Amino acid sequence: MLAVRAAGREATRRFRSPVGARDKRSASDPVSDADIAAQEAMAKVIAEERPDDGLLGEEALAAQGDRTWLLDPIDGTLAFLAGQPLWSCAACLREGERTAVAAVFDPVAGELFCARGDGPATLNGERIAIRETAALRAAMVRTWCDPHVAADPAYLPALGRLARSTAALQAGGSGSQALAWVACGRLDGWVELYPPGAAKEWDWRPGELLVLRAGGYARTAGAWRVAASNEALGRELERLVTG
Description:
The chain is of the alpha+beta class. It is built from eight helices and 15 strands.
């Protein structure tokens, strides 16, 4: 997808170089000059290719329509600013309640994950599929933890249940990248708690479609978002996080 590649070019130019940054809610939720430049590049591409479509972006961009693009110019800004390769550029097109197309681009690895609502999920044009992990105790699961999430009384007990029940529980980086990794079999699951008012759709919808079109499971369960390589594992993860 041209938009995420444009974002990737702008972000890569600034990766591991000094960039201006400020905190939005806290030190765990920064926005950088690279985020702004990458989002502007995405918006420019879409405005040229699809001038009648709406745009909804993480960095204060809102112009909705019947067809609206959700943009996450750099998902994993904290990792980006630290020089870690755990970030990605993500976008999807929403038509009403349906995600029609989605893309997650990892510029560092040169990996472009794409999916359509009526087609397979792909990595650099090749079809991908989830890894069939039957046992919860063998699953590698990723999550995200910051002070806002940890302040929710439901979160830390859920984290403990996950850590005791899975093979490995990881935290940090880009959620969209993690969902793409579930879709291509590098991870078995993803769980994230969204406090009230923080459930931004660009964090979830692109990766959600990738997982679903790769044959996996992705669902919102209350304040939680859960993705897994299969429904049985997804239901187990839901049970653990919701208690």
